[in-house]
Amino acid sequence: MIKADIIHPQLLGTLALCGHKTQILIADGNYSFVTNSSKEATIVYLNLAPGMIASSVILAKVLKHINVEHASMMAWPQGFTNTIATEYQQLLPEGCPIDYLNREAFYHAAKSQKTLLVIASGEMRRFANLLLTVAPVSLAD
């Protein structure tokens, strides 16, 4: 039995395959992760029921296993209050740049062959999709 923050075998195994510049998509419950991600990506289903498991919880656990050099979110309409964006900003490493891509640009980025892992969450908040670019391990790690 593994004693760690993540014990899901497929998730751990795929995280171990992620190298520098690999992309990881944390997809909300509204995202069409089968048609709008790389065909080569491993999809890990953590979406047991609506609202389980929150994307911010997934991000917090994933960040204990990888470094992130860049993040992208799908841009949301003007006037929409995106509460999860603030949560992501608080969790991501200080100074980590975040791009806000229009829907089609986000889908294009997620479909890249660089996307190795798609985590399907039960997150029901809209515009909660987050695409992470893995950074190298530093000597301080």
TrEMBL record:
What is the recorded name of this protein?
D-ribose pyranase
Q: Name the Pfam families for this protein.
A: RbsD_FucU
Q: Which organism is it from?
A: Serratia fonticola
Q: Which reaction does it catalyse?
A: beta-D-ribopyranose = beta-D-ribofuranose
E.C. designation(s): 5.4.99.62
Query: Which keywords does this chain's UniProt record carry?
Result: Isomerase
**Which InterPro entries does the annotation name?**
RbsD-like_sf, RbsD_FucU
